[in-house]
Every structure is written in structure tokens, then in C-alpha cells.
Amino acid sequence: EAFTKIAFHMEEGDRWFELAGRTDKAQQAKDEMDDAERKVDQLELDFGDLSRLVRDEVGRFDAQRREDLKEIIIEFLESLLSEQQDLLKAWERFAPETAAIIL
């Protein structure tokens, strides 16, 4: 919207220069406006490219984070299972002794 207002005012200036017989200034202003339009178009393209890159990187980061979390949870559960198996073996070794005490 701001660019549209600037373009409108530059066109108004062009008309004023032409009416005043200053076509060299009008052409210079038109060239500047054309250059500004090209820069805006290029900046919009650059912004679009950067936005896509950021979206891709955020997606990659999320996928990697999920994979890392999955690995951590699996390692934790495997460790917990191993500890429980060791505890079971200890109780199985101790069970005959407790049976003798109870009887």
C-alpha cells in the first residue's frame, strides 16, 4: 500500500514536471520509480525464498527433534527393562531362602 502511494505521488510529480517543461526530471523520476519497482519485486522474491527456507529448516528441525526424543525414550525404556530383569534375577535367587524362613 505504501509503495502504491509513493508510485501515485511520483506519477503526479511526473505530470507536474511535464507541465513545467522539465521532461528531463520527469524521465529521471520515472527511471527511479522503475528501479524502485524492480527492487521491490526482487525483495519480494528474496523474501519468498527466505520464507521457504525457514519453513523447510523448521520442518527438518521438528523431524530431527522427534527422532531424537524417540531414541531417548527407547534408551530409557531399555535401561528400565534391564534394571527390572536384574531385580527379578535377584529375587529369584533370594526366593528359596525366603521359602525356608516362612515354613
Provide an overview of this structure:
The longest helix has 80 residues, at 23-102. The radius of gyration is 37 Å and the shape is rod-shaped. It is mainly α and 103 residues long. The chain has one domain (2-102). The model has no long low-confidence stretch (mean pLDDT 84). The chain has helices at 2-19, 23-102. It has 2 helices and no strands.
Brief rundown of the structure:
InterPro entries: AH/BAR_dom_sf (IPR027267), Vps5_C (IPR015404). This protein is an all-alpha fold and 103 residues long.
Pick out its properties.
103 residues, mainly alpha, rod-shaped, Sorting nexin/Vps5-like C-terminal domain-containing protein, coiled coil, phosphatidylinositol binding, AH/BAR_dom_sf
